[in-house]
Write a structure and sequence with these properties.
Layout (H helix, E strand, L loop, with lengths): L1 H16 L15 H13 L5 H11 L11 H9 L1 H16 L10 E10 L7 H6 L12 E5 L3 E12 L5 E8 L8 H5 L8 E3 L7 H11 L2 E3 L13 H7 L3 H24 L13 H24 L8 H6 L1
Parallel strand pairs: 1-5, 5-6
Antiparallel strand pairs: 1-3, 2-3, 3-4
Helix pairs in contact: 1-2, 2-11, 3-4, 5-11
């Protein structure tokens, strides 16, 4: 275990040093950002989700993460709550760094999708939501409803993911389930757009204004299977409608599901989120911290598999290493 943690720490420390996280002035923090991210990776692989449980584990194993002393429970909680903004940047920068390692991690054409995860606690029915009535204190009032292709209606949060053709995560973002998919594309590509030419998504990512902006501003094609409507006045309407009917575009769209769905499956398998299992945290910020940590964990699982000449999606060695 310690050998793998040492590798992860070394790689993450190098990447973090290249990023300006706009930290507050003052003394250097006792615990580096990279060490805490690796710590949370291990916690979630071990399915330790309470801050009390994390503190108990850290009291025995703090030296494993390069710490000279054990962080307090409050420090663990504060560092966890600060993760979302950090990880959204870091996941993209990890992808940029790993792209230099060779074909498995490179990306030019990428695939985007959302998977909905069940909120922790009770279900907040639409009727009660509209009336502003919370019938049970266990309900996560920041979650919302969305329809899943496989599970029907779900109350929870959506993980938006961009992956390459080898299922390697490139960028990620978390939102409540009902938020429109296309709203997050620009945020997702902010740090990777120079390496991307084509983004392939389902109908939920179709938005005429977004397609036109990506083409004109970033020279990126956002391809879905949905055409522009006849009444639409956008200048690229005919060009786009003709393009998505070409054999090449049809082939790319068919490749989408086999590229991105297995990545969601890996996250659900490794972190016990399959079927109707609920998220272990409430609220958008903590759910974001958790799901983004899960995503960067998949990135490093694939990295370690690459180093060991294993299939990128092999979870066996990684699971037993921690």
């Amino acid at each position: 275990m310690e050998a793998n943690i040492s590798i992860l720490l070394s790689v993450l420390e190098d990447i973090c040093q290249k990023i300006d996280f706009k930290s507050k002035r003052g003394a250097k923090p006792t615990y580096s950002m990279a060490s805490f991210i690796v710590f949370f990776m291990v916690m979630f692989l071990k399915r330790i989700h309470t801050f009390k449980g994390m503190h108990t584990y850290a009291q025995v194993h703090y030296h494993t993460f390069g710490w000279s002393c054990c962080p307090t429970r409050k420090t663990i909680r504060v560092r966890f709550d600060s993760l979302p903004a950090v990880l959204q940047i870091l996941i993209a920068e990890v992808a940029n760094s790993f792209a230099l390692l060779g074909r498995p991690f490179r990306f030019l054409c990428v695939f985007i999708d959302k998977s909905v995860f069940r909120a922790l606690g009770g279900i907040w029915h639409t009727k009660h939501m509209q009336e502003g009535v919370v019938p049970h204190p266990s309900i996560d009032t920041e979650a919302s409803w969305a329809k899943s292709q496989y599970h029907g209606w779900r109350f929870g949060y959506g993980l938006h993911l961009i992956v390459n053709q080898n299922r390697f995560p490139i960028a990620a973002s978390v939102a409540t389930a009902s938020d429109k998919d296309y709203k997050f594309i620009e945020t997702l590509i902010k740090r990777i757009h120079l390496k991307i030419s084509i983004i392939v998504g389902d109908r939920g990512y179709f938005c005429a204004d977004v397609i036109e902006k990506l083409k004109n501003t970033y020279d990126i094609l956002l391809q879905t299977i949905k055409p522009f409507e006849e009444s639409c006045k956008h200048a690229i309407k005919q060009w786009y409608n003709d393009l998505i009917l070409t054999p090449q575009a049809q082939w790319l769209y068919r490749s989408r599901k086999s590229s991105i769905e297995p990545t969601f499956a890996l996250i659900k398998e490794l972190f016990n989120l399959t079927d109707e299992n609920q998220l272990p945290f409430k609220g958008l910020n903590r759910v974001s911290a958790y799901l983004l940590t899960c995503t960067i964990t998949i990135q490093f699982m694939m990295y370690l598999n690459h180093l060991n000449n294993q299939t990128l999606g092999n979870t066996t060695i990684f699971r037993t290493s921690f």
